[in-house]
Structures are given as C-alpha cells and as structure tokens.
Amino acid sequence: MQQFKTAVLSYFRSFMRGEAEVSESWKLHANRTSLIIIISSGIVALVLYVFVVQPPATFPTDELVSVPEGLTLSQVSDTLYEDGVIRSPLAFRILIKILGHERGVQAGDYQFKEPLDIFTIARSISIGAFGLEAQHILIPEGATTKQMSIIFSAKLQRFDQANFLAQAQPLEGYLFPDTYFFLPNATEDMVIQAMRQNFDDHEKQIDPMVQSSGRSLHDIVIMASIIEREARNTQDRRMISGVLWNRIDKKMALQVDVTFLYTIGKGTFQLTMKDLLSDSPYNTYVNKGLPPTAIGSPSLDSLIAAADPIKNDYYFYLADKKGVTHFSKTYKEHARKQLLYLGT
After folding, report:
1. For residue 321, is it within any domain?
2. Which run of H or of E encompasses 195?
3. What is the CATH number of the domain that holds 103?
4. What is the pLDDT at residue 15?
5. Confidence (pLDDT) at 9
6. 237: closest CA among 309, 177, 170, 186?
C-alpha cells in the first residue's frame, strides 16, 4: 500500500512538473506573440503617421487654400493633396465619411497658421473652420495709388496690383488714407470699394465748406493733395492753401516741387533745370493752374484746409531748416528770406 501511494505521489509530481513546463512554454509563446503584435502595431502606426497622418513637408502655412464651390469629395481631397495640405486623399475621404460630412464639406478659402495633421484638416473642412483673420493695414496720409498697391499686395493674397492700379489711378485722391481691416482673401475690387466709401463718408463733413468755397470738389481734392505734402500742421496748411489759391486766382504758376515726387520721384533738392522745364502736365513751373489729378490721398485736415483756407495777401512761402514756414507778399521779399533762412 505504501508503495502504491509512493508511486501515485511520484506520478502526480511528475504530472505537475510537466504541467508547469507546458505552462511556462505557453507563457513564453504568448509573451513572444504579444511582443510581436505590439511591435507590428507600432510599426503600422508609425507608417500610418509618417505617410498618412502628419502634415506634408510642403504644407502651405499662412497661405490661402481654396476649396471651390460644387466640388465632389473626391475632387476636394485631390485639391488638398495637390496643394500640399494632406498626404493621402483616400484617408481624407474616409475621415470625412466617418465625420458624417460626405456631402457637406464647406467651400471657401482656408488659412492654416501652422502645419496640421489630417484629422484636424478633415474636421476644419467639415465644419468650415476657415481660420481667416483680418489683416491690419495702414495707408498713410498722402499715399499714392502706386504706394497703396505695394502695401496691399504684401498683405492680401488675392490682391492683383495691375488690376488695382488700372481702377485706382483714375481715382487718385479719392481713396481715403486710413487704417483698414481686410480678410487675407480680399480682392482689389473690395479694397477700392471700401476706400472710396470711406472718402465719401469724410467728404460729407466738408461738403458745406466746398459749397461755400466756390471751388469744385475736384479742385479741392487736388489742392488738398498738394497741401498734404507741403505742410504738417493745420495752421500752415490753411495758410499755404490761401497762398496757392491766391496764385491761381492771379493766373500765376503754383511752382510747387511736390508734384515732381508724384511723377518722377524727385524732391526739391534733387530737381534739375531739365526737370523744371519738362513738358509734364504735372510741372507746375511751366503750367499754370492745378495739375490734372491729385498727387496722393489727402487727409481730412488737408481737405478742410483746401476748402476753407485762411485768407491772406501772400503769394510766396518757404520752410526754414527748422521747419518754420515764412510767408511773403512779393518775390523780392521772398528772395531775401531765402537768403536769410536757407542761404540760397
């Protein structure tokens, strides 16, 4: 009986050892399988991220990305792929379908401030998160349409300089200088409309002055554009306005140098005798009266000065080296002051 118990116990122990060995073998196999699965999953995830999820190297940061109206989901995905926004058109379509916007992607212009993954792009296009922020654009007083075109084209991606100049140059002086806020997809047509409306709104403030001045608005605007460059404070502007209107009423040439800045970009001390004798209609030395158009966009202060000058008996003026303006009734007096204040 004792021998039987010993045999049974020995068998049981042998069985348990075999069971333990099998268990250890199974655990080792299971651990290896799990490890292989984890590694494989990681590789797949890495491949998906690199080739599908992450933004392309050519992602158009801060550039306008257009999704035209009426495109199919397939066409939208191809457009985004061609523009360097996504890496996989197929993955994008799948995500849009998962989001439930297969037939409802939002058309329009998008702007992304930083490279975004395909999940974020899919969500943005689905809900119309355009990312457009108004651009702060300052047009300084006295700016010409050429200068405006440079300023706007640097800020607005849909802005066409050539088309702007074609439309704006006939409106020289009537596009009001101010601080504007435009979305980055604003066009030249929108810019001109806003600036002209701004001018009209300000012109209403001076309309009674224009009506009582006996001058046309066209002449007031041209005169104001000259005054804008001739003086920097209200008192001088109104005094100079009176002087220049005196010269016009006496059929005298205006003889202002600032019109050359508009045509050839030269200031007083750069002008040659050839320049002063040129046949340009903006040469106020050889042509009497006002130039044919404004030479820039005048401020409201200059418009008021042109419409409501300080009446005086002066026909000449000059600014000394400190910027102080001196007025004269005769050329002889003017020449004496030139020698006194400018040494010429």
Report:
1. yes
2. helix 188-213
3. 3.30.1490.480
4. 41
5. 44
6. 309
- Helix (H) and strand (E) counts in the chain: 13, 6
Sign (positive or negative) of CA dihedral 150, 151, 154, 159: negative
Task: Determine contact, residues 27/35, Cβ cutoff 8 Å.
Answer: no
Asked if the structure places residue 47 within a domain, the reply is: no
| Sequence-separated (6 or more) residues with CB below 8 Å from residue 67 | 76, 79, 80, 105, 106, 107, 108, 109, 110, 125
Instruction: Give the C-alpha separation, 239 to 270, whole Å.
Output: 26
pTM flag (> 0.90): no
| Residue 236: predicted pLDDT | 97
Q: In which domain, by residue range, is 245 found? A: 204-341
Low-confidence spans in the chain with pLDDT less than 70: 1-30, 35, 40-41, 44-51
The candidate with the shortest Cα–Cα distance to 184, out of 220, 157, 161, 165, is 157
| pLDDT (0 to 100) of residue 228 | 97
Q: For residues 227 and 300, state if they share a domain.
A: yes
Q: Are residues 216 and 306 in the same domain?
A: yes
Q: Are 84 and 55 in contact (CB under 8 A)?
A: no
217 and 264 assigned to the same domain: yes
What type of residue is 76? Answer: V
Do residues 248 and 296 share a domain?
Answer: yes
